[in-house]
Design goal:
By secondary structure, the chain is of the alpha/beta class. It is built from 5 helices and 8 strands, in the order βαβββββαββααα.
């Protein structure tokens, strides 16, 4: 079983990213579940969402993940995101800044390129979901593209698909396929 933690800010769509990936995995015949974590968070507060893909699915939050996906690189300044990863976890961060312990994806620039903005915020959730899929090799680009219309308003489908394809290809070029031991 593979476990993923999405860290984002309230309103960024971390929950939607996990749900879309679970749906895309199901399209491939895999068992998957998205587990949102809700509290009294407000827009902009750090929130978590979880994803499991595997033969055995549990009904509890993910304690330590194989992958940690950070939708806003500024979160690295506020909390140690490595606390969410297992030893050997892969970290994927929306940032322009590189580090030796994470894979940097400039999802914000991709979102801006395709006009993916809500209330003045770049919408990076599906872009980061695609980057995760590319890095992990657990879900195909084709399944993500098929899932997009289920999770975005009709007028944003084409822009989201274009952004997802670009992010997937960028992540493949940056890192290739990594698979942590489960």
């Amino acid at each position: 079983m593979y476990e993923v933690v999405f860290l984002g800010r309230g309103g960024q769509g971390a929950v939607t990213a996990a749900q879309l990936l679970a749906y895309a995995a199901a399209l491939e015949g895999k068992k998957a579940q998205a587990l949102p974590e809700f509290g009294a968070e407000r827009r902009g507060a750090i929130v978590r969402a979880y994803l499991r893909i595997g033969e055995t699915l549990l009904h509890s939050s993910v304690k330590k993940a194989d992958y940690v996906v950070v939708l806003d690189g500024r979160i690295l300044e506020q909390t140690d995101v490595r606390q969410y990863g297992k030893p050997g976890a892969v970290y994927i961060v929306n940032t322009r800044t590189s580090a030796d312990w994470y894979i940097a994806i400039d999802a914000t620039s991709i979102a801006l390129k395709y006009g993916l903005m809500v209330a003045g915020w770049p919408v990076v959730n599906l872009i980061m979901a695609a980057a995760f899929a590319a890095v992990s090799g657990l879900i195909s680009l084709e399944s993500i593209v098929k899932a997009v219309p289920e999770y975005v308003p009709k007028r944003y489908i084409e822009a989201n698909i274009n952004a997802v394809v670009e992010a997937y290809e960028a992540a493949k070029k940056i890192q290739g396929v990594l698979r942590p031991s489960a």
